[in-house]
From TrEMBL:
SUPFAM superfamilies: Ribose/Galactose isomerase RpiB/AlsB. This is Ribose-5-phosphate isomerase B. The keyword Isomerase applies. Its EC number is 5.3.1.6. The gene is rpiB. The keyword Isomerase applies. Belongs to the LacAB/RpiB family. Keywords: Isomerase. It comes from the Bacteria. GO terms for molecular function: ribose-5-phosphate isomerase activity. It comes from Mitsuokella multacida DSM 20544.
Length: 172
């Protein structure tokens, strides 16, 4: 079964998003089930709306991984992190991408097309996609930190009634 993934961008990241979509589908064998930006104008001044939409769809378990591409990857991830259970990280190299997944079980990464070339972007994507969080082998500290993050979300954010999965805080 193909892994389902969402991808979005602003107008600046549109061309790179198209390249990444092709890479995800043709090389990584993934199914892109969310791609709301069909032309560059669709992404103009929409990062907050798209971050909210992607976060909600992840919460509803339409897909569990998301990628956003803009100039830096920062603004979108800041907005996505306002949602209960979402862990979004702007990554700029393979190591931070790998650790975003292995240490934090991050569901969303933000990529900067003004920071990374396409070949390096592929290395970053591989590091994030090829190193899934596994509760059986994860460091105890990472598992404890996820539970602390959940407590923090419970304290500071409203958990929507439509949450359809455990958001990766614990093993299923």
């Amino acid at each position: 079964m193909k892994v389902k993934i969402g991808i979005a961008c602003d107008d600046i990241g549109f061309e790179r998003k198209e390249e990444v979509r092709h890479y995800l589908e043709e090389v990584k064998g993934m199914e892109v089930v969310y791609d709301p930006v069909k032309v560059p104008a669709d992404g103009q001044n929409t990062f907050a709306v798209l971050a909210d939409d992607m976060a909600t769809r992840i919460q509803k378990d339409e897909f569990r991984l998301g990628i956003y591409i803009c100039g830096t990857g920062i603004g979108f991830t800041c907005q996505a992190n306002k949602h209960w259970g979402i862990r979004a990280v702007a990554v700029s190299n393979p190591y931070t991408a790998q650790r975003a997944r292995l240490s934090n079980n991050a569901q969303i990464i933000g990529l900067g097309c003004r920071v990374l070339g396409m070949e390096y972007t592929k290395m970053v994507l591989d590091a994030w996609l090829d190193n899934p969080f596994d509760f059986a082998t994860a460091r105890e500290n990472s598992k404890k930190n996820l539970l602390e993050a959940k407590k923090n979300d419970d304290l500071l954010l409203k958990k929507p009634d439509y949450i359809a999965w455990n958001m990766g805080f614990e093993a299923e």
